[in-house]
Amino acid sequence: xxxxxxDTDYAVRALVYMAQQRGRLVTxxxxxxxxxxxxxxxxxxxxxxxxxxxxxxxxxxMGGFVLSLPAEKIRLTDVMRIFQGSLEISECMFKKQVCPxxxxxFLRKRIVSIEAYVVNQLRAISIxxxxxxxx
Amino acid sequence: xxxxxxDTDYAVRALVYMAQQRGRLVTxxxxxxxxxxxxxxxxxxxxxxxxxxxxxxxxxxMGGFVLSLPAEKIRLTDVMRIFQGSLEISECMFKKQVCPxxxxxFLRKRIVSIEAYVVNQLRAISIxxxxxxxx
DNA sequence: CAAAATGATATAAATATAGTATCATTTAAC
DNA sequence: GTTAAATGATACTATATTTATATCATTTTG
Lengths: 135, 135
Hints:
The structure is a homodimer.
Chain A: H1 6-20, H2 28-35, H3 39-51, E1 55-58, E2 64-67, H4 76-84, H5 102-123, H6 127-134
Antiparallel strand pairs in A: 1-2
Chain A binds a DNA duplex through helix 3.
């Protein structure tokens, strides 16, 4: 079971790195070198973070990225939702029909309650909190 | 994020169904009809449950399956481990090398603690507990 | 020996994850 | 105004995982 996919993971690393730079403009090239993330992959990830207004892209020569929010306000759940979609842990497997199975449905209830706990825990993790732990 | 894959889910349904039969021999054919699970898929799932001694296969004509444990002793985590392998929620993505990234490692610590909670919750769910909820 | 069950196992199809490549656009410096 | 260095948009490829399907062998009862 995988809670966090690789793009979420890379995004978090990039965001932590940017937060450490305290507002200095950072280029994708620099982060590729520092974080050893495949270039094309990281670029796409940064673009997605830009579209979701997590970071602010500056175009043109001398361009780059800065966080568009304080690191305290960027939560792990925000990043996960961008790259992994819904955080539902128990997506019904009978997508377009009503679930025909009672057994599944009460198992599901249990899982939904576990899910609520997990999401709360993840929401409590911000880029800033990872930053301070990194020291 | 998917906590439970489809084979785990089907396995749980089959086990709940068997538990409801209170020791009566049940064939794969019967469960295919009752539970609307694809035949070949369910057969393979039952075989795997047999290999892991969760149920006891009876060969030959008039054969079938019975649980080999009381339903209280079959935990959701047992079934998940059979079909999904390790329950580690945070498998390090740098499989064969030491993780070169500090940021990831402290994020990982947080996730490991969430994982412990989740596994405990799942371990508390047995086939018997699902059975009583089903009534 | 035939029918009805499971055992073992190979293969295929569909989906999700991970990664690459290309061309367009913007901006600063000369 | 041209060039270099950055991002934007987007299409594509590769790999792994999930979700099955199919086939033939073996066991057992009648």
